[in-house]
Structure formats: structure tokens, C-alpha cells
Amino acid sequence: MDRRAFLGAVAINLVAGPLRVEGVSGGKIPRIGFLLNGNRGSVSPERTAFLEGLHELGWIEGQTVVVEYRWTEGNPDRYQPLAAELVSLW
What whole-number distance in Å separates Cα of residue 35 and Cα of residue 42? Predict the structure, then answer.
């Protein structure tokens, strides 16, 4: 499996998994893991688009959904350990 396919699969499972398992009415606030290739303080168009998409669906970060962010700090070798960290949160 190439790196893009792996990262795509991880991203889909991290986003869809909590929604599928807990749902909105499950009593708990759903959590989504989000991996970013950048720095914590930088403005990310991917993050902005993601949050806008959530908002269009009626989800509001910190109110109806919790987003767990992890940044690679520009080092692609960090994707795998950060993905494992996010998975371990559930």
C-alpha cells in the first residue's frame, strides 16, 4: 500500500469512525482525529475548509463535535506515530 492510500484510509477511518459508532444522539460528543502536514500555529486552508464543511452539516467544533488535531511539523515520518496516537484516544 502506498503512502497516499494509507493516509487516505487512516483519515477516512478517523473521521467516519466516531460518527458511525457514537452518532449525534449517542449521549457523548463525537470526536474526530485530524492530521495536518504543517505547524500548530500556521493557518491551514485544509483545516478551514474542514471546519466550514462541518459547520454546513450543523456540527460546531467544541459544541457538537470535538476535533483532535495533530501536526507533522513538516515531517512525513510523523504521520504513522501521530495516527497511532489518535487511534489510541478511542
Answer: 14
Q: How far is CA 49 from CA 1, 26, 56, in A?
A: 27, 26, 10
- Smallest CA-to-CA distance from 10 within 70, 75, 54 is with 70
Spatial separation of the C-alpha atoms in residues 73 and 29, rounded to whole Å: 28
pLDDT reported for residue 22: 45
Q: Rounded to whole angstroms, what are the CA distances from 10 to 4, 47, 73, 76?
A: 10, 17, 18, 14
User: For 37-76, how does the pLDDT look when each residue is reduced to its tens digit (9 = 90+)?
Assistant: 888 877 788 888 999 999 999 999 999 999 999 999 989 8
